[in-house]
Amino acid sequence: MRLTVVGCAGSFPGPEAATSCYLVEADDAQDRRWRLLIDLGNGALGPLQRVVRLRELDAVLLSHLHADHCLDACGLYVVRTYDPEGRHPGRLPVHGPRGTLDRLDRAYDARGDIGPDAPAAEDADRPSFAEVFDVREWAEGTPVRFGPVTVTAYRVRHPVETYGLRLEHGGRVLAFSGDTDTCPALATLARGADLLLAEASFQEGREDAVRGVHLTGRRAGQVAAEAGAGRLLLTHIPAWTDPAVVSAEAREVFAGPVLLALPGDVHEV
Hints:
Elements: E1 2-7, E2 21-27, E3 33-38, H1 45-51, E4 59-61, H2 67-70, H3 73-82, E5 92-96, H4 100-108, H5 129-132, E6 133-137, E7 144-146, E8 149-155, E9 163-169, E10 172-176, H6 184-190, E11 195-199, H7 217-227, E12 231-235, H8 243-253, E13 258-260, E14 266-268
Parallel strand pairs: 3-4, 4-5, 5-6, 10-11, 11-12, 12-13
Antiparallel strand pairs: 1-2, 1-14, 2-3, 7-8, 8-9, 9-10
C-alpha cells in the first residue's frame, strides 16, 4: 500500500495544509490500481487533484461527520455530476457513520428543500446524493473489501460517532486513528500495524483537562508502543500547535520512528 498525505491540518485548514484527507493506493493481482480516500475534509479537494484524477477514485472512507473530515464530499458531488466530460459513471462507494447520506445531502442542499419556505430546485436534472454516491454505514468490526484491500472500522472515543480504520493488503497493515482519545478500540485497530497514522491534536500540559476528544503526542506514542506498531505518523495537528512539541512527546514513549504528516508526502506501508 502507498499512503499519500493530501490534507493533515487539525480541525480547520492551516496556512500550509487542508484538513484530513489521505489517498491509499494498492494493486491487485491483475495489476489494477485501487485508490481509496480516507476522509475528505474542508479544503482537501483542491490538493487532491494534484495527486489523482477524481474519476479514478474507487471509494471514500469517512471516519466521522465533522466538517474537517467530510465536507469536501460536497465538491466531489459537483465534480461527479457536472463534469463537462460527462457525469461520472456509476455510484461511488462512500462508507461512514450513521447519518452520512443525510448529512452530505443537506450540506450541499442537493434536494433544494432546506427551510420551510425554500423554493423547489430549478435544476430538474440535479441528482440526489444517493444517485451519485453509494453510501453505506460502518458495521464495527466487520471487514469490507475494496479490491485487494480489506478495511475494518472500529468505534473510537470522540464526541460524535467516529471510527478508526484498519486497512490490510498483502500482509501489511495501515491503521488510522480517526479523531479519538485513548480507548481499547484504538489499541485493537493499531495492533501490529506497519504504519500507525494517528492524530495528535492536543498538547501535554495545555489540554490535559479535556478528555474524550483528542490524543496528545504522548498518548499517540503510548498507543504505538503498546500496539507494537512499526512507525508512527502524527497528523491532525492544529495551526496553533507546534508539531515539534507533539512529536517530541511521542518520542519520549515510543522507540520506533516518529514522523510528521506533511502535505504531498508519500509513505510506503
